[in-house]
Amino acid sequence: xxxxxxxxxxxxxxxxxxxxxxxxxxxxxxxxxxxxxxxxxxxxxxxxxxxxxxxxxxxxxxxxxxxxxxxxxxxxxxxxxxxxxxxxxxxxxxxxxxxxxxxxxxxxxxxxxxxxxxxxxxxxxxxxxxxxxxxxxxxxxxxxxxxxxxxxxxxxxxxxxxxxxxxxxxxxxxxxxxxxxxxxxxxxxxxxxxxxxxxxxxxxxxxxxxxxxxxxxxxxxxxxxxxxxxxxxxxxxxxxxxxxxxxxxxxxxxxxxxxxxxxxxxxxxxxxxxxxxxxxxxxxxxxxxxxxxxxxxxxxxxxxxxxxxxxxxxxxxxxxxxxxxxxxxxxxxxxxxxxxxxxxxxxxxxxxxxxxxxxxxxxxxxxxxxxxxxxxxxxxxxxxxxxxxxxxxxxxxxxxxxxxxxxxxxxxxxxxxxxxxxxxxxxxxxxxxxxxxxxxxxxxxxxxxxxxxxxxxxxxxxxxxxxxxxxxxxxxxxxxxxxxxxxxxxxxxxxxxxxxxxxxxxxxxxxxxxxxxxxxxxxxxxxxxxxxxxxxxxxxxxxxxxxxxxxxxxxxxxxxxxxxxxxxxxxxxxxxxxxxxxxxxxxxxxxxxxxxxxxxxxxxxxxxxxxx
Length: 612
Known about the structure:
Blueprint: H1 3-15, E1 20-24, E2 30-33, H2 36-41, H3 59-74, E3 77-78, E4 82-87, E5 93-103, E6 111-118, H4 120-140, H5 145-160, E7 164-171, E8 174-182, E9 192-193, H6 203-210, E10 214-216, H7 219-222, H8 226-234, E11 239-247, E12 250-259, H9 267-289, H10 294-305, E13 310-314, E14 320-323, H11 325-331, H12 349-359, H13 362-367, E15 371-378, E16 384-393, E17 402-408, H14 410-424, H15 434-451, E18 456-462, H16 465-472, H17 474-491, E19 497-502, E20 505-510, H18 516-529, E21 534-536, E22 539-541, E23 545-550, H19 558-574, E24 580-582, H20 585-606
Parallel strand pairs: 23-24
Antiparallel strand pairs: 1-2, 1-6, 3-5, 4-5, 5-6, 7-8, 7-12, 8-9, 10-11, 11-12, 13-14, 13-17, 15-16, 16-17, 18-20, 18-23, 19-20, 21-22
């Protein structure tokens, strides 16, 4: 794959990435955003984002993001992931997992590269999962119906972070609120009539009639009554989920949950909350008939057991109380081995201390936010697997445990590494390609100016290689290039670079050149490696090459160095091939004069200026 194709591949990956990729300057002002910005945030142009991007971050997350950005601009390299709430163009908040890379010294970027993944659905799923888990505890410890309903509503609001939860029971021809928690002003004077036609019925009536969960998006527009519509907008209600409560085959009422986050009730969340509604209905029946509630806990375990990702329940002290079968599949260890502190044995030894410091951070314990990190686990056979975790606190109380989702990302990382290798290495020979060579050349020039050292750049072109392709075919030509690359690599010392520039052209960076003789010696070694014939299809092929040598001055940039090396290489070809030539200013002047003469002769022919 040549440079143009690699550049096209990378551009295609960025433009079609499902993740948000943006570039910020040192003032956090937006310089570039890929098309995912429109899909995730609704912004079609960087110009739509005024001043810096911090005004888009949720006020509760802004200080943390600001502190992190200071580290991003002062510390080079890739920074650990963080999760922030970011406001879209439409005003809704999305949860983004952000990874920042400092590329301020990269002239091609000159900014902070932000890769962000929209994890709103995962966060909403965590919220529903956390609600379900804690609600099970309320169900298990219920002693009477009023306290059961009250504790369930409180759990939905406190553990799930929802704005309002209320239980209404059917009372004749209407539904009356029985217990609630959260912004209860919305319920003042509320009476839901069951005597309405289907075309006018709201979600509560529809849930009772159909016996199925009902989701309402954008409450400010969906509520028929103007007064309640205005109240919904006033309290920040966005979406609602209404769950039917069916006891002994009859729907006796509903559990209604309201959220400030648009899209909070997706299919996965509704499934979990639907399980909660069923468990609550069963709990009501148990209180009424003193039946056991143990099946509710079994329902939770069944749901977690069927999850496509690993799920752990961990206490604030780091003790695992539950691990689902998927975590056993990822780690190739029995789930029992994860219990209590056993999970630590599965962590790669080199990652244990860093992970422990991340988990035990006092600030993280106090903030009680969704957190994400990555590390390696070791299977019993020694195989390493890379995993990404998302941990959600069970409640906002300090000391509460976490529900942790564990995702195997080994194949995902391998794909990313393969793409990176394709971008910087020649696919045929395995040598660095043009892009990586130019990057290393820039680094070497900076080092030389800083340390007062010198390098040599060698430009090699195989002599008459086109004849090999034309007579023996490109497959043989490729095999010859692989053999040549292998030989040339043996000559290059540690820290130096041999690259395939394009076609049959190779470039070399020779370090610590104290005298021009050092560069000449390197060129002789390269030509010497090609003296032995190459055997292909029972034929001995003699491959020679011409080399141009440049000793860069302190003022030259990469483009000027390549130009001069190319000029010297063609001088070697004109002198008879299978040799090297040193670049000097006289050679440059001859090259310019030749170019000027050729240009003037062409113009003279076009203008009919020749006379015989």
